[in-house]
Amino acid sequence: MSSTLITNIAELVTNDPHADDLLGTVQDAALVVEGSTVAWTGPAAAAPAADQQVDVGGRAVIPGFVDSHSHLVFAGDRSAEFAARMAGESYAAGGIRTTVAATRAATDEQLTGHVARLVSEMRSQGTTTVEIKSGYGLTVHDEARSLAVARQFTEETTYLGAHVVPEGWTPEEYVALVTGPMLAACAPHASWVDAFCETGAFDEDQSRAVLRAGIAVGLRGRLHANQLGEGPGVRLACELGLTAVDHCTYLSSDDVGALVDSGTIATLLPGVEFSTRQPYPDARRLLDAGVRVALASDCNPGSCYTSSMPLCVALAVREMGMTAAEALYAATAGGAAALDRDDVGVLTPGGRADLVVLEAPTFVHLAYRPGVPLTSQVWVAGRPV
Ligand code: NIG
Ligand code: FE
Q1: At 216, which CATH number?
Q2: Domain enclosing residue 52, as ranges
Q3: Is 190 in the pocket of ligand 1 (CB under 6 A)?
Q4: CA–CA gap between residue 196 and residue 208 (Å, rounded)
């Protein structure tokens, strides 16, 4: 197996859990890649020999971003809805049905091409692992094909048949479909099951039924909760021991206590608050309480059409009380934990060599230079892409 020494790294972020600092940073560092994995990290002066050498010229190297929440399988455009919102309309998630109509009308090839463009847009900004949900099909056929399309790009696919109740169905009928024939058709293409637990979407009992049905056939659970107001979602996710609960914008002290006790990851999606003019989630409160936090894009055509993890990091630092180190950790190791993964989000021996060479001497520039493209090189599984 051929080895490559990446050297002259001004600052290497490893996220090594055994390090003294949160990010396991090494200054004047090097890293050895063997095949698809990391074989060694440490000071450049102590680096072992390798078959090839790459000099990154005093740039910083970080683990690739792990974006644990996105809705990339869709067709159509909702820029008019965004413009109306910026002119004073509020976000009510009702526009989901517009995307559903466009998605149903799209061919498999159109959907695949669109996901491919978004995944490559993500990768060019440093995202090396992405989770992709269904949820804009809302028929057995359209949910199953959405997941089959998503599976071409990632193993981290999530069945979100319970996004909203489509026209022509009562909630009871639709939950029976989502937990019955639709689940049977979707489970072979999915790793996760999700529901949108929110007023106007699915209530606590309906969300519990959807999650339990998915878990019963071997999927793991995650949940959209407490995005538009306080509600039972976060506590439900904790009660069911889900890996992650996403949004967490409006939290009671009971919700925070439940997150602490359960160890469920709170995935914060600041692009949504940016794009809907809602208040940002209070990351500081969660971190101070001991909750594990992830950052993700929620890239979708309605509430947040950004694919940029660097933007999420910058917003988390500027608007949510996170330090630059906490935000980068949440966008890498935090996202990995939110997907139950320990092979990504870290650059430690044995981990997958997914990394970003930044056009910067330190990771702090991700927040210090918002909006600036700082991705110099992206490596996936040991190779530059
Ligand atoms: O995560 N919250 C529910 N679903 C998406 C938005 C969907 C849409 O508006 O199209 C979200 O924000
Ligand atoms: Fe979402």
Answers
A1: 3.20.20.140
A2: 3-63+346-384
A3: no
A4: 11
Q: Which ligand is nearest to the CA of 222?
A: 2
With a 6 Å cutoff on the Cβ, whether 196 touches ligand 1 is yes
Do 249 and 373 belong together in one domain? no
Q: Which amino acid is at 312?
A: C
pTM of the predicted model over 0.70: yes
Report whether residue 305 contacts ligand 1, using a CB cutoff of 6 Å: no
Pocket test for ligand 1, best of 96, 223, 305 (most atoms within 8 A of CB): 96
Q: From CA 48, how far away is CA 40, in angstroms rounded?
A: 8
As a dihedral over the C-alpha atoms of residue 14, residue 150, residue 78, residue 297, rounded to 10 degrees, the angle is -10
**Pair 194, 133 in one domain:** yes
Give pLDDT tens digits for 153-170.
999 999 999 999 999 999
**CA proximity to 249, closest of 298, 203, 213:** 298
In a shared domain, residues 222 and 367? no
Ramachandran class of 321: left when φ > 0, alpha when ψ lies in -120 to 50, beta otherwise: left
